Amino acid sequence: MPTAKTANIYNLSSANSSTSVNSLLGRRRQRHKRNLSLGASPSTGSPGVSSTETASPAPTASPLSTLSLDRKTFLRQKQTKQLQVSDKTWVRSDLRRGCLHVHDWLTPSYPRPVLCTVDTTAQEVALKVSGSKSGALLRITPTPALFLQLHGGAVRRLEDDEKPLQILNEYLTNLGFEDPWRVQDEGMNPEIGCLIRFYFGKPRSVGGSERVQLSGVFNVRKGKLALPVNRWSKRQVTLSGTCLIVSSVKHAHTGKMHILPLIGGKVEEIKRHSHCLAFSSAGPQNQTYYISYESYTEHLRWHRIASKIASQRVNSVDLSCCSLEELPTQLFYSQDLTHLNLKNNFLSLRKGVPGSLDQITHDWSLRSLSLSNNTLTEFPLALCDITSLTELNLSGNQLSSLPPELGSMHNLQTLLLDGNCLSTLPIELGSLDSLTYLGLSFNGFSSVPPVLEKLRGLERLCLAGNQLSVLDTCLIVLFIYCNTEQLVHIVHLDLRDTGLRDLDVRCLSRLEVLRCDRNCLSLLRVSGQALKNLHAAHNDLKQLDVAPVPENLTVVDLSWNMLCSVPDWVCESGRLEVLDLNHNCLTELPIQLLSSGSLRKLLSGWNNVGRLAERLERSQLEVLDLQHNHLTELPSNLFTKAQSLRYLNVSANKLESLPPASLSEDGFSLLEELYVTNNCLTDKCVPLLTGHSHLRVLHLAYNQLQTFTASKLARLEQLEELDLSGNRLRSVPTTILSCQRLHTLSAHSNGINAFPEVLQLPEIKCVDLSCNELTEVSLPETLPAKLQELDLTGNPRLNLDHKSLDHGAPSVWSHSYTEASGVKNKLCVAALALDSFCGIREALYGVFDGDKNVDIPYLLQCTMGDVLAEELHRAQRQEDYMTSTFLTMQRKLGTAGQRMGGSAALCHIRHDPVAPGEHSGCFTLKTANVGRCQAVLCRDGKAMQLSTVHTVKEEVEYQRVRQHNAIITEDNKVSGVTDCTRIMGYSFLCPSITPRPHVSTVTLTPQDEFFLLGSRGLWEMLSPTEAVEAVRNVPDALAAAKKLVTLAQSYGCADSLSAVVVRLSVTEDCCCFCEPPPPPPSPGPGVHTSTHPYQTSDGGIPLPPPSSGTVSELSSELSMSEMSSEVGSTASSEDPPPQAEPTAAHLNLPGRPGARRPAAGGSFQRQFSGALSDNGLDSEDEEPIAGVFSNGSRVEVEADVHCLNGRERPSPQTNFQTQQTTTPPSSTVYQEPAQASPSPVPPSSPCLSTEARSGTLGRRARANGSVACQARSQDVIEEAGDAPVRKQGGYFNAPAQPDPDDQLIIPPELEEEVEQKQTAPTSSTAEEEGRKRKGEEGAVLR
């Protein structure tokens, strides 16, 4: 193999070798002074330069970044690499044309656009790029080549006849784009490089750079020190992987290299030479290199790392994910190599090419070889000559057949062929007597291969993912009617996702593990003689026979079936430890099961169990889950007989009481977690809880508690989490101070009128007292050090001093949302709530779930609104704008979306005016979702699904996944990553996983009451019908969202949760033929005449300003620069004028906070929200009453108080702006000072929602829906002073005669202009008085 290839594989560059770098740059600096910049690209060598020098690139690209001449030169070169208008015009004139953005192999920061057609080959593109670089600084190899990289992963070399533009178009089509013109347009976007990227030359960052641990230029001597022949010489030394590589300094990449394997060798310190180490290899032909270091620090670092490598004794090499196209030549000289990992490369059979797989020699003593996920289309025959091989992994290739020579590998014990295209097996495979594990999952088998009859030693057989449904009888015949002992030795049988309807494997007497999940089984018969594990979830089982009674059975999973009773053999199994019966049709649980001496975990939720045995015998249960049944009582001696019980969940039943913890107060109970949410418990159950002295988690939400006895609470000293939400409590006992370990108190949706002394607890982190009747809050002088959230929203009697109460007309929709952190207090969800989106008659709501990552949800939250607004502006077909939003967002995620992903659900309300005589609705709700975030509409009291979840259970999705050679693992996840086939991010799984959403459109009617959006964890615990029924009678949207999250937590969800509830009030008179009238002209300069705040100059579709409809401010914990340099940004290059940002500790008024009005220049109107709405009037016949604001029959004032430890209020540099919005005569407008933000992200735009303006979205949120602002101290509660007087009917009286000075805060620089405008009406008033004296009618006050 050529030496240059080896250099790329091991990446023999040195960041510290300045000698060769400076000398090389010194010569080039005189020839190409103009091209010394960061954006310089490689070029072909000049004719006067030798081929050796031409092929020698700079050892590292890092010094070039410090040699930029100036910023103007840098920007000029960047500009030359961008598409011009004439280029785009040429491309868009023909669908067969396009543009490739080709990145440089050494400095890939800015790609070079290359115009081509679908017939242009890779060789032509490479020659074109090579020819355009004649004057560039850096040189390339003599043979130009084009490389392809997908989703930032491995890089493969394109063949000369491959067509890059066609590859690009096919990738975008598989991603989900259907319109060929849109495919062409997306291909011209340089940001597409985070998904698919073309390189001119193999990039330096690929091929093992992460394996280089140490590198530098030192004095090196080979051989013995006593011989005078050997002299010290300057050499490039690299410690890469497990080898020491010594090469020439001048020709570090192309010259001769000396590789010294260190495993099993020695690293010794030479004391007679200062800072000198001796490196020796192992084996009979060992070699020794002496290296002298300049400092003791380098000497010590090399000695420590090299000694660890030399001490290893495992003869293994890991070259996975190295973009290898052929084997490194060093492998052919490796001695005692036993384990070789070559997965995730581009290896294939290239006969006659050095380093090809057909050159593998039989001299190797390999025992394990992995070639999975390569590009093999044929089985390498050379592998059959390695007689020592015991494990061979060829999964994830494109093999369609196996050679007969495979039968000569008699020592082979494990053969993995999963994820190929096999449909038959050679008969010679039956001679592999040592074969014990055969993996044939996800191939093309339509029947069980007959050769399996001859594999007498086979113990583990995997046939998952092969469509055997049409040949069920053949499978049964094979297993039953073979009279000999064929296949009776099978121990582990995997038949997942095979489409089986009936299965009888009673003849497999040695069967220990059977996996038949996700089939269509209605009948299953298994031998229980040796059975240990049985997994048959997600079937249609009504009958399950296991005979004889399994004595060794420990784990049984029968969830998501149709069983009406528990089989007798389950109760008789003497060693059963885990039994999952969730989601069946059970009506009773046998007493033998509850009193089993071996059963430790019983899951029987979501059934129809009406009652249990009155009394139990002694039980060893530790986990008991009986939620979502019809239980009215529990066994009276449950806790006394099940003394090992640590977890009990009986939520969503009809319990009226609980059994006592013990027969006496001195009884002993180990119960740690008790969930009894959503029952009918009263105050009588409280004294029964005191016996559980070890209780850590107690959920009593949504019962009928009126008091919680103080003395009883004092005895629960170990309590850490207490949930009393949704009851009738008037107070929290002061004895809660006895619970010194308490970190979470949730008591929302009660009638609590006094703030508890919970802030005196040392471990308190989260306090949720929202939706109560608090009248005052007394905070200690020093807040708890660990306090993260204090939620006081939805307390109508809490008087907060705030001067900026806004008001407006009743709304058509109003929303509220809440979020709750999951494990390790990580909030991996985000909500988007924009009541006014691109206009007062549009709204946008969304929920995003990142599963275990926090980055993707916040990127979606902060960017998706902008992308949707852009798609609305550009979409030629309006029905496609939602799909295009999700597909474009995949690109906007940048490098963050390559290895991470998340679910998303988006709801967009639009106003479509209709003629007065038409009966169709004027508001439409368009919903799109990917992953497990879903939306549900309540129409006339019934749940209407707006979204769907795409999984491999759908035939179309399964076929699409299998078409792209993906596999489904045992946990039902595609390639072991996600269980959804459509999701945001995870671009490395494309095209098996795509971001193309499910889109639905409904017209809103007066029968529509509300709609819900929820994250993955919410819908795993609640069905759509159950969620709608739970909150339908909860009038307050915030309380409804809180209830959904509380229920999901009590039902066992430990992940992050998010719920958005949007109340609808659509009436017949909401629909009007005409658009809303234009607002009155604004005083002062810059009057707007457009009816749309963002009307375009040509009168087309209005385009919102940068960052409109989304949250622009990002917290310091989540900046775009931290995430990725390639994350797509929707911010404009021109920053909008600075705007005021209210503090997060604010007052929230339900109802309409004020319609967004057109603002000139940098005007800003302050709005406040929490559970707010803003979309216009119910009818154009109703005008807002001056000074009147309401929310139906009740008015609430809410406050969010968020506490951050160690934050100090910054001293903002304020400047004032002119208010240029005309308001009703009695309304009050307050101008807020703008704050200069040091963040590079632009401030809030006028199109932001009320949450965004008040600083609640886009921040790092805490548990249960509160958001902690990162920029300001939240230790202040403001109190209301001038609250209007409430009238009957839920309205307020406007102030009688408001002070004019309170209406407008005038900046000093505009005082003169305002004074002139105030004195101008004097003459006009005199004229009016004259007209009145003359008796004229229709006088107008100006």
List the topology elements.
Layout lengths: L2 H8 L7 H14 L10 E2 L7 H4 L16 H10 L4 H8 L4 E8 L7 E6 L4 H10 L6 E2 L6 E5 L4 E3 L6 H12 L4 H8 L8 E5 L11 E11 L10 E8 L2 E5 L9 E5 L4 E5 L5 E5 L7 E5 L3 H15 L5 E3 L20 E3 L26 E3 L20 E3 L20 E3 L20 E3 L20 E3 L9 H9 L11 E3 L7 E4 L7 E3 L7 E5 L5 E3 L7 E5 L7 E3 L10 H5 L5 E3 L10 H4 L6 E3 L19 E3 L12 H4 L5 E3 L23 E3 L21 E3 L10 H5 L6 E3 L20 E3 L19 E3 L20 E4 L20 E8 L8 E6 L8 E7 L5 H20 L6 H12 L3 H4 L1 E11 L11 E8 L3 E6 L2 E4 L9 H9 L20 E2 L12 E6 L4 E7 L1 H6 L2 H8 L5 H14 L6 E8 L55 H4 L23 E2 L49 E4 L12 E2 L18 E2 L14 H4 L6 E2 L5 E2 L42 H9 L1 H13 L9
Parallel strand pairs: 1-4, 2-7, 15-16, 16-17, 17-18, 18-19, 19-20, 20-21, 21-22, 22-24, 23-25, 24-26, 25-27, 26-28, 28-29, 29-30, 30-31, 31-32, 32-33, 33-34, 34-35, 35-36, 36-37, 37-38
Antiparallel strand pairs: 2-3, 5-6, 5-7, 8-9, 8-14, 9-10, 10-11, 12-13, 13-14, 38-51, 39-49, 40-41, 41-42, 42-43, 42-46, 43-47, 44-45, 44-48, 48-49, 50-51, 52-53, 54-55
Helix pairs in contact: 7-8, 15-16
